[in-house]
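Suppose you are handed a protein chain with no further information: no name, no annotation, nothing but its sequence. What can you learn? This example shows the usual starting point.
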Amino acid sequence: MVPQVNVIFCSGLYANYDNHDLPFAASYVVRFVNRVQGLVEMASYWAFSDIFEEQGQDPRPFHDGFGLNTVVGVPKPAYRAFQMLHEIGQDKVYCCLCLHLV
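A reasonable first move is to predict its three-dimensional structure. Written in structure tokens, the prediction is:
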């Protein structure tokens, strides 16, 4: 019997507070999912919303909170990355980007 492997990740951006509300967060999610696909049974994101107790409640909608949604419910880039991956489903297209420097 093969043991189940679960991965819980704190968005991978924990040390980089400036990235949670930026497109970088989406690229991190897509890269992470691509790298662990087929290796783990389940992966989990740290927080669905920026509303949580540990840091107190910051009223600003974009304050680099750890959630996938802002305190007012606006989906952040990482949320949109998960949405895109869900819509793609199991389809995968392999491509090679070859850069020729002259």
